[in-house]
Amino acid sequence: MSRSLTLALAGSLLLGSAACSDSLAPEDVAGTWDATSLVFTSVAAPATNSGNLIAAGFSLSLTLNASGTASVTIDDGTGPTTDTGTFTIDGSDLTLTLGGDPSTGTIELNGSTLTVRLTTGIDFDFDDDGVDEPATVVIVLSRA
């Protein structure tokens, strides 16, 4: 799995737990979240996507702290990779910085389901040629 996939997944899971609110704070999302769906879509060719990587055997776990720090562990079947960083929330807007690379997007919480949509700072290798391409990602999570 590429480093950018790890960062993208990490960014996608940094959100969390206040019933369908327009405004969330780090305290609202503090806890551990497990991904139930993870789908990357190509910016250049929106009909191209990764399919649900969780259904394909990946796992992703995100821990968010009220202090604004976070860690994400991703396993693509070759062993887990963990990354740490920070996040900020402004209303429903999210900025996640892992490894110095910021990603931005939105979060939505409905009951115990958290949906994270990251639209900038995301890359994914859609054709396994070793070259990451600009992408967006939608991650659906549930509280662990």
How would you describe this structure in keywords?
144 residues, Lipocalin, 10% helix, 51% strand, 2 helices, 8-stranded antiparallel beta barrel, mainly beta
Question: Level of helix content?
Answer: under 10%
Give me the number of helical elements. 2
Mean pLDDT: 85
* Whole-number count of domains: 1
CATH homologous superfamily assignment: Calycin beta-barrel core domain
Which CATH first-tier class would you pick? Mainly Beta
What coarse outline follows from CA principal-axis ratios?
A: globular
> What string, H for helix and E for strand, traces the elements in order?
HHEEEEEEEEE
Main sheet record = 8 strands, antiparallel, barrel
Query: How many DSSP E strands?
Result: 9
Round the Cα radius of gyration to an integer and report it: 14 Å
